[in-house]
Every structure is written in C-alpha cells, then in structure tokens.
Amino acid sequence: MSKEPSGSGLWSPPSQTAADRRLRQRLTEELGAWSLSAYAERSQWWGLMRYNHESGSCPGRRRIPVSRRHMLSTASVGFGLTAFSTLAAEETGARGFHFAPKCRNVIFCFMPGGVSHVDSFDPKPVLTRHDGQQMGDWAARAGKKSPATPGRTWKKCPWTFDNYGESGIPVSSLFPHISKHVDDLALIRSMVAELPLHAAGNLFLHSGRLRAGSPSLGSWITYGLGSESNNLPGYVLLNSGSVPPGGKENFANGYLPASYQATSIRAEGEPLRNIAPARDRQQRSKLEWLLLQDRQFAETLGANADIDSAIRNYEMAFRMQSAVPDTLDLGQETAQTHKMYGLDAEDRDLRLYGMQCLRARRLIESGVRFVEITANPIGLDNGSWDQHANLKPHHEKNALVTDQPIAALISDLKQRGLFDETLILWAGEMGRTPHTGNGHGRDHHTSGFSVWLAGGGVRGGTIYGATDELGMHAVEAPVSMHDLHATILHLMGLDHERLTVRYGGRDMRLTDVHGHVVHGILS
C-alpha cells in the first residue's frame, strides 16, 4: 500500500485505475470552485479511506471477498464481452422472454372508482322491467363481496344500447367512439374482485395483493423484460392530476429494485420536475463524479441492489433530459392527429386526457415497455367513476373525457403498424351495483363487472363470461385479477409461474399461488 505525498491526508485505493485518476484530474479542473478535494474531505467514503499516519494503519479499510463487479472489471475482456451480450440481447428484444410474445408493449387505461358494467358493456333488459322495485329476497343472495339490504331498489340503465361491428357486441351510448372498435375488443363480462374498497381494490388490480408493499404489474413486466429504450424508463405513469386510493404504492416497485418503479409524467405544467438540463458540461462532470464515488463505494460492498439502482437512476435521469422533451413534444404531430385525440376540444379534461393518450403512443413508439394512463380527477375523491350519487351526469362526463382519446389511440396504433404489437387494457378495480339506495347513484360491486383488452394476441370481437340477468354475479367463466395478470404476462411472452424473485424466504410472483391464462380471449 502506498501513501499520498505528506500532508495530503488522502489514501488512493489500489483498485483505482489510470482512467479513474485521469477522470479525477479532469473533474478537478472543470469543477473549479467546487473543489474536489474539499468535497472528498467531507465525503463519507473518502472519510473512511483516510490514512492514519500515526498508526500506519488504514482504520476504514478491511479486506473483503472479491465482488462480481470487481472480477468483471479486471478479467480479460470479461466485462466487455458481458456488456456486448447484454446489448445484443436487448437489441433483439429477447431478454427474459419465456416463449414467443404476442405483443411487446402495454398501455393500461386505468379507470379508477368503478365503471358501471350494466351501463357500459353489459346490458340488462330485466333491470328495466324491475326498475324502482325493491330487491326483497334478492338482497340475501347479494353475497359478502357486494352486500345489499331488502329496501334497496333496482335501477335501470339511463342510456341506450346498440349492437356494433360484425361481432354485434352491444355497447352503451356512453361510448360512441369506442363502440366503433368492438371488433378489436375482447370483452370480459365476468371479472370478480376481492373487496369493495377502493384502496384495497386498486392495489389488488395493480399488484395482486390487498396490501401495499408488492410490485405493480408494470414493475413486474419491466423486471422480466427490461426497456427497449436506453434513454427512457421502462415503466411510465401518465398522471392526469390525482393519486388514486392506495396511493403511489399502486405504481411502486415493492421489493424489486428501485429502477423498476413508475416514472410519473404530469398532464399539466412541467411534465417531469428538473427535466430541463442545467449547464450541461458542469452537470455532466458532477454526475461523473457521483458515479465514480458510487462505483468505488459499491466495490467495497460487493453486490448491492440499492447502490446499483442509484447508479442506474443517475444515468437514466441524465439521458432523459434530452429524450423526454423530444418524446413529449406534441408539436411534431399533425393538426389532424391533434383533432383526432381531442386536443382542440373545448372541454379542458378531454384535452388533457387526449394529450396523455397521444403521449402514450409516442412513448411506446420510443421503446417504453409499459405505460399507464390514469383518468382525470372528475367526480368523487375515491376515483373518477365513483358515482354513489348523480350517476348520469358524472358517468357522462367521464365517458366524454376518455371515449374519444382511447378510440383515437386504437386508430393511431393501427395506422402506424403498432396495434398488433401493443396490448391495451381498459379496467378499473370494481364495477357498480345494479341497485341503488338513493335512486340516482350506484355503489361498489365486485362480484361481477366488465373490463376489455385489445391489440396483440387478443381475439377481437369476443365476449367472454357472463353475469346473471340482473348483473349481480359472474355466473359463467369468472375471471379473477390473478387470471387477468396471468393472461397479460402470457401475451408478453412471460410465464406467470416462472417470473419470480426471491424475497422473504420464498419465490414471490405477481399471481402469488393463483392465476390461470384466459385462453378464450387469445387469438
């Protein structure tokens, strides 16, 4: 071990390469007043590495096993060969696939609060005949998931249904634009959930668990497949203005490394904080210095997921400063495209949601693996579609905001040849009751409701499952959230039973010990 010249007080680690020393020298010159020596003096890592001249020992230094990173960095061509193989795998998009995928990207149109299935995609003529009548004995059969009392009354749909497309699927007049694409949709009418609670329901839809702390669907997919872009994150949340019940845990990485959590992009104002680069040269120099410190510190610890994630996040953040503004620049789109998505509409919420849908297309076009779009904060605080009262005006407002942009997204993906490699999921955490307690609203309902999928690998023009004549229970081919997750992973080329991570002494997976692929909606 060699010492620095007397008086310097800094010990140079033996593992430091000539390239590292040249980088340190260049950083010292470029940072000027931001003294590298002064910073190192205050640095925890370098504080540990200070040489003790009196004792002749190095109190912060201890021998450690050779780390995987150190081995790769010193082995002949080992690191370069490993990097090349990783890049080659990423270039082919084959990294992590268990079998040939049907699609490469996911756009999740999240409808929080609970869209009424009997008012959207599951018509019930019997409700019209019983409108205003008390439930009576039916209340006892409501079940624990969606309990009811005998005094509640049946409520008919206040909109009309018509059949559309070659498949003749009935769709409510709430969705005049989406109805034109029914031959592209696989409509599941038999979804069931666990609890009629917004927070637990949202977490269950996103992570397959009723409590916070587990990775979301988007995190699992990016964990399994990575991103196809080196300059954009694999999982992006297009946030339309509010955080749904369940909080940011709905979009969190849980026990996966932090690099798999969602990156949130806002609809209004600056899309992403601090995305505009500062003085580029100085910022690059500071970042290189931080990365140098992190890498050297990581070498003393061996493999460490937290430090690895921090390094990756630093590097991704710097690259995003040039990639994100360009990707989100809708000025590059034609006036016709703006109009198709509703960006010229008088309704502010429609314009914002349309903007996020157009951004979603541009993001997957740029290689982002998983994009989620949250609905605008219209209606009650528990979610846009949570209409316990004033069902008609508020459902109409929500449909106005989301219908045209989602239909435009489908059309746009088709025009650009992206539809067959993109999976679109339209879903919320629950449905709404076919009955009412106040005459003008519907309450939470989990024993039977509707979601739909479209795009790569999906059999369009399909209705799967059914609820009873009043829309109370899924009576044919019930589909659980775990089944839905297993099916989405399958379409992405992932086996839900093999996509696991070791945590807490067991192999954890998105579907836990449940889930079956719904083959009836696959092409």
Bin the strand percentage. 5-15%
Count of helices? Answer: 14
Distance between the termini: 66 Å
Largest sheet composition:
8 strands, mixed
Report the principal-axis shape. globular
Structural class: alpha/beta
The Cα radius of gyration reads: 27 Å
- Uncertain runs: 1-16, 30-66, 68-95
Could you tell me the number of beta strands? 18
Summarize the structure.
The chain is α/β, with parallel strands linked by helices. It has 14 helices and 18 strands.
Identify the notable features of this structure and list them briefly.
14 helices; eight-stranded mixed sheet
Structure commentary:
Helices cover 34% and strands 13% of the residues. With 523 residues, it is of the alpha/beta class. Strands 7-6-8-1-9-13-5-14 form an eight-stranded mixed beta sheet, sandwiched between helices. The protein has a two-stranded antiparallel sheet with strand order 2-11. It has helices spanning 18-31, 36-42, 44-48, 68-74, 78-92, 125-130, 198-207, 217-225, 280-301, 305-327, 335-341, 348-365, 391-415, 481-491, and strands at 105-110, 153-154, 161-164, 169-172, 185-191, 235-239, 263-266, 370-374, 422-427, 431-432, 435-436, 444-445, 449-455, 462-464, 466-467, 474-476, 501-503, 506-508.
SSE blueprint and pairings:
Layout: H1 18-31, H2 36-42, H3 44-48, H4 68-74, H5 78-92, E1 105-110, H6 125-130, E2 153-154, E3 161-164, E4 169-172, E5 185-191, H7 198-207, H8 217-225, E6 235-239, E7 263-266, H9 280-301, H10 305-327, H11 335-341, H12 348-365, E8 370-374, H13 391-415, E9 422-427, E10 431-432, E11 435-436, E12 444-445, E13 449-455, E14 462-464, E15 466-467, E16 474-476, H14 481-491, E17 501-503, E18 506-508
Parallel strand pairs: 1-8, 1-9, 5-14, 6-7, 6-8
Antiparallel strand pairs: 2-11, 3-4, 5-13, 9-13, 10-12, 15-16, 17-18
Helix pairs in contact: 1-9, 9-10, 12-13
